[in-house]
Amino acid sequence: MIGATDRRWLIAMVGVPTFLHVLLVWIPALATVGLSFAEWNNLDPLRDIAAVGTENYTVIFTVFGTRLFPALFNNLALVLFLFLCTAAGMLLAYLLDKSVRGTALYQSIYYFPVVLSLAVVGFIWKSVMFSRESGLLNILWPGDPIDFVGDQTRLFELVLPFGDVPVGISRNFAALLVAMAWRHIGYVMVLYLAGLKAVDPSLKEAAAVDGCNEWQSFRSVVFPTLKPINVVVAVITVIEALRAYDIIAALNVPRGTEVMGTLVTSALIGEGAGRVGIGSAYGTVLFVLCIGFIIWYVYNNFREDER
Amino acid sequence: MSAPTVRAGGVGRAVYRTISSIPTGALWVIVVIWALPTLGLFANSFRGPSEQRTTPWWLLLRDENLSLDNYATVLGTDVQGGLVQGVINSFAIALPATVIPIAMAAFAAYAFAWMDFKGREWIFIGTVSLLAVPLQTALIPLLQLYNGGANQTLPFIGKTLSIFPDLDLTGTTTAVWLTHAGFAMPLAIFLLHNFISGLPKDIFESARIDGADHFQIFVRLVLPLSIPVLAAFAIFQFLWTWNDYLIALTMIGPFAPDKMPATVIIAAIAGDFGRYEHLLTAGAFVQAFFPIVVFFALQKYFVRGILAGSVKG
């Protein structure tokens, strides 16, 4: 029952965003997948693109395995770590909302890191907290100064059953995780503090009258009310973890902190640029990873809806 | 109070107990720890380069020459062209990159939720499935697109079809916000669709009976109801685009230094072999000023918008 006017609006309002999205995201992303089977320097004309089959993948999984596997591991660690931060941020927000006065003050303190770019967050931690001579953490630390940003020795190491490359979290990546947690927990708290203000207090009272203890009322009343925030936060957490690039690029640490974002970028632009085939192969791996998360999410959502 | 009738158990409860046993004083300690990096940055922003490098920031009162020099320098034009132009460029990117995708996504989300048309599910899934895809995966083809347009020579006929004209967008702010708009579309449509599809069906039916077409329903009913959720997304998108480094760096950085947004300038200040690194302190505050204003201005909408989808539960 769509009339002529409606049809015109529909074409404009769904057609234009779809066109933009297909043109700017789908086509370039698929072109990247295509380029991953080719060799090309992007300074050369398009006709110089030469097909090389799966050679780029062979290269990144064998010769460059020492870079690819640690980067993949760092990305996955980042996803898990940011989810832990999310849980911590949610509980902290709940407790703060319940018990601490001086709302405006503590909110401003948590908001500040949220509005900073990750590149700036990296710099702040490097100079104010991590610096050898004047960083707070090194002054408080009783032993020799720690090179938080440069030390790439691993905290632990796992040997993969394939690829023969040990992976693990290096010390400088752990330091970077701390800096990211500072911003991410703030992010999550901002969202949940906003949400908690909107939870109807009479619901909590009703739960108390019905004999719920505090954990039960949190789990059965507050948490479900916050469901829309949970979705937003989960999506944002995954996006931030997979997109991670800025903070690592800003700290400019050559080894130990690579993630997929930096591998792709460094093969395409900057030093050592022009290896479009290799960069595209990295990009395709990242693309598959991102799509995987969404498919997993959509699948779970559908299953939940069916229940 | 009667005994709890439902046994809640497991890890969640243990974690919750531990955390709720933290006294209020300890929560304040966490707040103070949170403030430390910001305080340090603020203190350092008044100190000279050698003081910043050699003595801890909390000793700033011992310094003799505290000054606003760092602020004066980043606001002037001597270092990397200065942040004033950078902030203007950031606005030229962040405003269209926020407003345009939201405006487009709102109606698209409405159409996906309440209009029946062919291919609805597939277009929706096709859009939303790229929710988490980062820009790197499309970088080189995008640069090619902006530099030369998209032309396809048709096989057999030999005719060249221009899908996207060569607008020579390399090194322009347009290239940057266009990219942000494209990449923001999935998340915007996803979040707005979550909300709009949860609106009660009755209001649409009665409006249809009154003879309203979809566009009228959208403008008169859906838009006013969606303002909080639009504001919430606007905050995200503004922060994301204002703070973006990668897209601006690759699309503007090497081509047009006078079009660089604040983030790229700040990183360039830090880069230059650390010579101007001390200026970053002041630069960070200048760069963060506008997002803070935006945040507090939109905050009251934000509180309502973030829970808006809970109608559906």
Spatial extent as radius of gyration of chain B? 25 Å
Low-confidence stretches of chain A: none
Strand content of chain B: under 5%
The major beta sheet of chain B can be summarized as: 2 strands, antiparallel
N-C termini distance of chain B: 29 Å
Mean pLDDT over the residues of chain B: 80
Helix/strand class of chain A? mainly alpha
Strand order in space, largest sheet of chain B:
1-2
Which structural class fits the helix and strand makeup of chain B?
A: mainly alpha
What share of the residues of chain B lie within helices?
Answer: 55-70%
Please outline the major beta sheet of chain A.
2 strands, antiparallel
Strand order of the largest sheet of chain A: 1-2
Radius of gyration of chain A: 24 Å
Uncertain runs of chain B are 1-8
The succession of helices and strands of chain A, N to C, reads: HEEHHHHHEEHHHHHHH
Could you tell me the CATH topology label of the largest domain in chain B. Answer: MetI-like fold
Instruction: Kindly state the percentage of residues in helix of chain A.
Output: over 70%
Number of domains of chain B: 2
Q: What's the CATH first level of the largest domain in chain B?
A: Mainly Alpha
What's the CATH superfamily of the domain at 69-261 in chain A, by name?
Answer: MetI-like
Plain-language structure description:
The complex is a heterodimer of chains A (307) and B (313). Chain A has 307 residues and is mainly alpha-helical. Chain A is 70% helix and 3% strand. Chain A has helices spanning 4-35, 55-61, 65-99, 103-115, 118-130, 136-140, 171-197, 201-209, 214-225, 227-243, 246-251, 260-268, 276-306; strands at 38-39, 50-51, 158-159, 166-167. A two-stranded antiparallel sheet of chain A has the order 1-2. In chain A, strands 3-4 form a two-stranded antiparallel sheet. In chain A, helix 1 packs across helix 13 (276-306), helix 4 (103-115) crosses helix 7 (171-197) and helix 8 runs antiparallel to helix 9 (214-225). In chain B, helix 5 (83-114) packs parallel to helix 8 (173-196), helix 5 (83-114) packs across helix 12 and helix 12 (262-271) packs antiparallel against helix 13. Chain B is mainly α and 313 residues long. Chain B is built from 13 helices and 2 strands; from the N terminus they run H-H-H-H-H-H-H-E-E-H-H-H-H-H-H. Residues 1-8 of chain B have low confidence and may be disordered. In chain B, strand 1 and strand 2 (160-164) form a beta hairpin. Chains A and B meet through helix 1, helix 3, helix 4, helix 5 and helix 7 of A and helix 1, helix 2, helix 3, helix 5 and helix 6 of B.
